[in-house]
Amino acid sequence: MQQYFEVIEKKDSEIGAYLTLTKKLALKQAELVDEKIAKGQAIGLLEGIPGAIKDMICVEGVRTTAGSKILDSYIAPFDATVIKKLKENGAVILGKANQDEFAMGSSTETSAYQLTRNPVDVSRVPGGSSGGSAAAVAADEAVWSLGTDTGGSIRQPASFCGVVGLKPTYGRVSRYGAIAMASSLDQIGPFAKTVEDVAIVLSAIAGQDLMDATSAKSSDKKFEDYLTGDIAGKVIGVPKEYVENLEGEILEIFEKSVEKFKSLGAKVESISLPNSQYALAVYYIIMTSEVSSNLAKFDGIKFGMRADDMLDSGVAENELPKNLLENYLDTRRIGLGDEVKRRIMLGTYALSAGYYDAYYLKAQKVRALIRKDFEQAYEKVDFVYCPTCPEVAFKFGEKTADPLKMYLSDIFTISVNLAGVPAISFPIGMVTKEGNPPAGGLPVGGQLIGKWFDEEGILNMAHTFEIN
Amino acid sequence: MLTKEEILHIATLARIGVKEKDVEKYQHDLSEILDYFKKLDQVDVTGVEPIGHITGMQNTFRTDANVDFGDLGKQAIMQNVPEEKNGYVKVKSVL
Fold first, then answer.
1. pLDDT tens, residue by residue, A160-172
2. Residues A261 and A365 in one domain
3. Domain check: are A367 and A442 in the same one?
4. 3-state secondary structure of A30
5. Quick one: closest CA in B to A281, which residue?
6. Claim to verify: residue A268 and residue A393 sit in the same structural domain
7. Looking at the predicted complex, does its ipTM rise above 0.90?
8. What is the pLDDT of residues A246-291, one digit of tens each?
9. What domains can you pick out in chain B, each with its CATH number?
10. Which of A366, A371, A404 should we substitute to test contact with B (largest number of B Cβ atoms within 10 Å)?
11. B75 to chain A: nearest residue by CA?
């Protein structure tokens, strides 16, 4: 553990993966493990293993900002269920990882605190929104980390940084204590360098929780026990809508990976997800609507930042000090970043009187069609397979000016959240020629999408690919 | 394109103060994305039930019982409150 803090000390001024280090907590946890070892007691797989937690997830007594100034001084009064479980498993928490503000972004550039740089090429973004969690693992500043994934926020940064990241089935992992973004889409999931490590962390955090009514009944599976390395006869479906627009090196690397799956005994078929062309529009309606509701609690009254009472902002009309409404307006104007405000405004519009049927309700219906696409695909195939992203890590500032362009980075990942299925991103190759990559190349991720609650299936597929 | 009045109305509903100089940017950004949403107009959803819960869970209940937590966590919660009085969260005056 001390070793990891030394690496962080040395590297993180450049990488910027961490917002807060939790040295005292880490030391306390490590001592518990040392005591057990000294007593000759058996220790579990995660005991003493250090990791990073996305700042979206509450750790008791630790500052939890969600990457936002509005929570700058917020000290979480309780542990999220996943943290409670990791602590029970003896895992050591090194610190809180940087992210896009309230997980809204695909590059970690919307964090109100700092940039996180991609360890593979520091002139590029690590992806997002869980960019700090992915970068911490890629830079050896943590063995594992937790992120949250609402539209690709674990898988896309895993792809950009060349690590493994898993978004579990909706309901597999309790979200209690994770700051909510879009409640019908959010899931917590692990990052690590290997599929096996991801499986071990998933085993620790999965399970039903009374504190999250959306968490599903499940047996205490040890996902690492399902990594047999045998995928003979498994059928993979490649969605033609996803690959028809791919080109260049990413397409070559993807095709090579398909051949590799074949050589390992899998069968590959072309399938169709015809409604995937609507996924981005559906996603942005549902997500922004739920965001506008979930973020209403940041009001400067119960916790977090409050605008200075005597600040004459020009927004509040009455004389100072501010009344309740003026305080809301100014606190949220100052405390929230541009992307967050844009999404709250959009969602408020979509849910406002007269528009609900046209936007939110319509989107939930098209979402049913997107789920049906997957149901029909899974009648024929065991897994759906495509690249995680249509691109590799891009340079800072390349997309910040155009929100819609930034949103398109999530095009392959969002259908998964809309359908609620599990998916894993794992490294399948390096782009070495196109787009001026660094000497070693830029990582490309493959995305395996499983049936509902078949995490063990996609983990074993990715594991078999990885070890061969 | 959303009008200036629409932007200011949404901003008030969203409880986000918007300065005069930022209205135009919101008009542009929101309208561009709303235009993109029009893509859904071409989908026929006749007879399609909207998604409620994605994996089909229904009626998750807990026992309707009162649990007294006493002062558990009270201090940790109250230390995050911007303004308190006599142990209560102080709310600004409405008028």
1. 999 999 999 999 9
2. yes
3. yes
4. helix
5. B37
6. yes
7. yes
8. 889 999 999 999 999 999 999 999 999 999 999 999 999 999 999 9
9. 4-42 (1.10.20)
10. A366
11. A77
